[in-house]
């Protein structure tokens, strides 16, 4: 998906199923680029689900997949990589 | 997308070996992580239609709700015996169980030892968090000295209750087991960086896959996952990861105790 | 090795009977007076005469054995375990699970003296345990009681048929005497039928997978399941009560006895008839479901006196009392500790009652 402002291609994307997330924070603390943070809003179960942003505090997402491996709740459902 | 050709490919994706049901596990519990690692290995090795999961009793009692494979319930501690029955009748099936430390090391220790000693080609995953989780936090045979639990309210006293039992070391003393490994599964705080190390999950994924490969090669495989139980340890999720790293992993250090077929080298 | 006609101990005959009906797996633990069963099967394991017999394993404990039976039964196999009283007690958790999971299997209990360690003599004191549940929760199993070595040989086939038809554990309740007794027998040509095992856990098929569990956390769901188990047993009760009658058509007093006691009572009935006493014998073959129908029919016909002869302190007595509904006089001749009454003692007891 290109950013409308910069016309840049986001090289990776993490798909989150917010309703499954229990806000455990493990993906947040394990992500080396700090691309993930807990949302301020609540999901149906009353947890703050995690949200993904491509530009993390330390850099852009590299599709390393650590969040996928660490998530205990199948809330990180997909890690996608851009193929030109 | 103006002028940009391409598409997103799935590097890591949804797994048909998961039912997709939201889990009952507490937030941050390694049972959930392990379930995901197992689902991934079953999918990657195309084992789903040949697999029978044996549910044990403990937090893993509902494992069949999350893993989309044939499953049978076992009485408390008896999963290695039930697995033996299945595998002896149907050696073509892949048979495994996820057991807690109470299930495998307390009431089921005899069944575990004898299945291991016979070298039954089955797989046992032990989730060792040093406490009885499902029943509300009582002392386990693997509870570290001094830990406060519901049945050791003044801290575990080794003099009257014995020392924690090291299941991996115990099974490794027998000749027959082909793969005995202990992994520290939780994310671990690493002071040198400002993010938690996820090596446990990666190592865990590899160990699950190796364990299944060892069974396919005819050997008994056992992987002990040192884990957490933040609710019954009465800690925050991240604090419990720290406790596992600093205390539990010292009582149960990770390691490869047996690798008869050399699967770790490949 | 056995031939179609042979002279065998009860335990051996039972083992061969199971082999001949296509036994797939045996998991056991040595306990007197049942050990001849695993010993015979150990010898015959690998005999091409029994190609279905794929697994023989002596487990490390009675508990390990019953759980191995559960695993093998889950694959749809014909599985058996054999034990005596203390081992039967240890197996109760497994039997409860198997009943809740509706797994077919055959468990043999060679009743010895109890309670506790007891002794090695014959008793019928596991009657309550076998017929009323024994394990936790609400379930019933089918219990068969052979009374001769030929029946020890033919009952495994009947047991597996019932087990698979109703998807339930079946118990053969015999005793130390019958297990050791040697008799002449002809092995009947029994079918080794295939049963429907589409419920078995042998690997998912596409979207279809099988989950065999006795756990139903949802309260209404467990209620439904338990109702299903009850109605299943009600059907068993309607259709599978089995017994044998000797000289009961015109009997004034009916003896009720199973297993070795039935053999003694048969002798006694013969002697009584010779003395002009109109006595007969009802021999339950299924202890569960108990042949209430026959007893009720006797009462309807006007039989006023029954004598229950058993090797315990009054267990089947209660079922006879229930079935006769307080409309007849029920006597009880009991022996325990491995002792048993002689036919002449039974005759004397009947004569006292008949007066």
Q: What structural class should be given to the helix and strand makeup of chain B?
A: alpha/beta
Give helix and strand order of chain A, one letter per element, not per position. EHEEHE
Termini gap of chain B: 43 Å
Characterize the overall form of chain A.
Answer: globular
Let me know the number of strands of chain A: 4
Enumerate the spans of chain B where pLDDT stays under 50 for 5 or more consecutive residues: none
Describe the structure.
The complex is a heterotrimer of chains A (84), B (266) and C (355). By secondary structure, chain A is of the alpha+beta class. Chain A has helices spanning 26-30, 66-70; strands spanning 12-16, 36-38, 50-52, 76-83. Chain B is an alpha/beta fold. The mean pLDDT of chain B is 95. Chain C is an alpha/beta fold and 355 residues long. Chain C is built from 13 helices and 16 strands. In chain C, the strands form three sheets. In chain C, strands 2, 3, 4, 5, 6, 7, 8 and 14 form an eight-stranded mixed beta sheet that branches. Chain C has a five-stranded mixed beta sheet with strand order 11-13-12-15-16, with helices on both faces. Chain C has a two-stranded antiparallel sheet with strand order 1-9. The longest helix of chain C is centred in the middle third of the chain and has 21 residues, at 219-239. Chains in contact: A-B, B-C. The A-B interface holds A 1-2, 7, 9, 12-13, 19-20, 22-26, 29-32, 34, 45, 47, 63, 65-66, 68-74, 77-84 and B 1-2, 4-14, 18, 20, 22-23, 25, 27-33, 35-37, 66, 187, 193, 195-198, 201-202, 205, 237-238, 241.
């Amino acid at each position: 998906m290109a950013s409308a402002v910069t016309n840049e291609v986001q090289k990776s994307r993490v798909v989150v199923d917010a309703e499954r997330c229990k806000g455990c924070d493990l993906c947040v603390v394990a992500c080396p680029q700090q691309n993930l943070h807990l949302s301020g809003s609540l999901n149906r179960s009353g947890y703050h689900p995690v949200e993904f942003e491509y530009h993390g505090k330390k850099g852009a997402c590299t599709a390393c997949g650590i969040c996928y491996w660490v998530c205990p709740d199948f809330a990180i459902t997909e890690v996608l990589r851009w193929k030109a | 997308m103006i002028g940009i050709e391409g598409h997103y490919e799935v590097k890591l994706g949804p797994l048909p070996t998961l039912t997709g049901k939201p889990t009952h596990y507490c937030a941050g519990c390694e049972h959930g992580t392990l379930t995901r690692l197992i689902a991934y290995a079953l999918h990657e090795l195309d084992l789903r239609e040949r697999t029978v999961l044996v549910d044990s009793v403990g937090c893993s009692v509902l494992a069949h709700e999350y893993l989309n494979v044939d499953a049978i319930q076992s009485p408390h501690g008896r999963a290695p015996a039930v697995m033996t029955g299945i595998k002896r009748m149907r050696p073509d099936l892949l048979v495994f169980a996820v057991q807690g430390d109470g299930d495998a090391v307390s009431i089921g220790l005899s069944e575990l030892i004898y299945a291991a000693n016979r070298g039954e080609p089955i797989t046992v995953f032990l989730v060792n968090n040093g406490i009885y989780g499902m029943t509300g936090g009582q002392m386990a045979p693997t509870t570290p000295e001094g830990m406060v639990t519901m049945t050791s309210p003044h801290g575990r006293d080794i003099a009257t209750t014995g020392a924690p039992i090291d299941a991996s070391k115990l099974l490794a003393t027998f000749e027959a087991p082909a793969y005995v490994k202990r992994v520290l599964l939780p994310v671990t705080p690493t002071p040198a960086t400002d993010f938690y190390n996820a090596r446990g999950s990666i190592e865990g994924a590899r160990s699950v896959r190796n364990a299944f490969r060892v069974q396919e090669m005819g050997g008994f495989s056992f992987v002990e996952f040192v884990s957490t139980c933040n609710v019954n340890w009465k800690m925050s999720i991240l604090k419990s990861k720290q406790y596992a790293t600093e205390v539990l992993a010292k009582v149960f250090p990770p390691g490869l105790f047996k690798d008869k077929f050399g699967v770790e080298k490949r | 090795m056995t031939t179609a006609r042979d002279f065998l101990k009860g335990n051996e005959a039972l083992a061969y009977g199971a082999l001949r009906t296509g036994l797939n797996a045996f998991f056991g633990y040595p306990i007197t007076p049942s050990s001849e069963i695993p010993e015979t099967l150990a010898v015959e394991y690998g005999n091409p005469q029994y190609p279905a017999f794929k697994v023989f394993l002596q487990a490390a404990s009675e508990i390990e054995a019953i759980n191995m039976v559960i695993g093998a039964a889950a694959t749809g196999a014909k599985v058996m375990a054999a034990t005596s009283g203390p081992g039967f007690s240890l197996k109760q958790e497994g039997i409860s699970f198997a009943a809740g999971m509706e797994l077919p299997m055959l468990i043999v209990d060679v009743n010895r003296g109890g309670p506790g360690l007891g002794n090695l003599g014959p008793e019928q004191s596991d009657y309550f345990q076998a017929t009323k549940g024994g394990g936790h929760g609400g379930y019933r199993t089918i219990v068969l009681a052979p009374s001769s070595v030929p029946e020890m040989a033919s009952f495994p086939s009947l047991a597996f048929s019932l087990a698979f038809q109703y998807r339930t554990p079946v118990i053969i309740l015999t005793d130390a005497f019958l297990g050791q007794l040697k008799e002449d027998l002809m092995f009947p040509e029994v079918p080794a039928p295939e049963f429907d095992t589409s419920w078995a856990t042998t690997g998912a098929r596409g979207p279809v997978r099988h989950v065999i569990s006795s756990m139903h956390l949802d309260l209404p769901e467990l209620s439904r399941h338990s109702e299903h188990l009850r109605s299943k047993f009600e059907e068993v009760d309607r259709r599978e009560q089995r017994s044998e009658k000797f000289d009961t058509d015109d009997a004034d007093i009916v003896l009720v006895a199973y297993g070795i006691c039935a053999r003694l009572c048969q002798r006694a009935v013969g002697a009584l008839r010779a003395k002009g006493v109109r006595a007969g014998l009802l021999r339950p073959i299924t202890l569960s479901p108990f042949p209430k129908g026959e007893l009720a029919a006797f009462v309807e016909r006007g039989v006023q006196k029954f004598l229950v002869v058993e090797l315990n302190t009054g267990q089947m007595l209660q079922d006879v009392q229930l079935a006769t509904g307080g409309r007849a006089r029920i006597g009880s001749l009991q022996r325990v500790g491995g002792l048993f009454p002689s036919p002449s003692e039974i005759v004397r007891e009947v004569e006292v009652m008949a007066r």
